[in-house]
Specification:
The chain has two helices and twelve strands. It has helices at 13-28, 33-84; strands at residues 88-95, 98-104, 111-113, 119-121, 130-135, 140-144, 148-151, 158-159, 162-168, 173-178, 184-188, 197-198.
Length: 199
Amino acid sequence: MLRQATRPAAPCTTSSRRVGSAAARAASRGVSLIECCAVLAVLSVLAGLALPAFGDHLAKRRLEGRAAEVSNDLQYLRSEAVSRNEAMRISFGTDAGGSCYVLHPAEARECRCASDGSARCHAGGPAPLRSVGLPATDGVTLASNVASIMIDPRLGTSTPGGTLRLSDRAGREIRQVVNIMARVRSCSPGGGMPGYRRC
């Protein structure tokens, strides 16, 4: 029996090299200018849709932050009155630039505040503890149904009680209600702010 000489099959090196090099070239090409523009257009539309909601979220947080600041300052004033054994006041004011309040150990007429955060006290009077301004550009306004609230140092009570209304441009409102025991209760009229009781 004669054996036929068989040649081993030649590897397909040239065609596989062509296919491999074509795939490598396609992968190394990168992204075309049209693809970049399409991605940028989609991102711009998504950012345009999200921006108003983000601005509204920031306005809510700003209002909540100011309401918390007022509440904390009222508690601070009460603790200072008791620790110093001296009557303390919080006085409220408004001017063309916005609204403000000042914490001071004096009669209501002796210290006045400005929306830029400064406080003016009569000469010779004690220095204010703290003055807070709420400029109109901030978007939050403060209104009070009383000109000032005094904290009695012996009893820790307030005279008179009052309601402080903090509101923003969108009409949302948080009220800080100060009772005669100088305790602060937060609420929102009509439930306009989530997380706050209705007033």
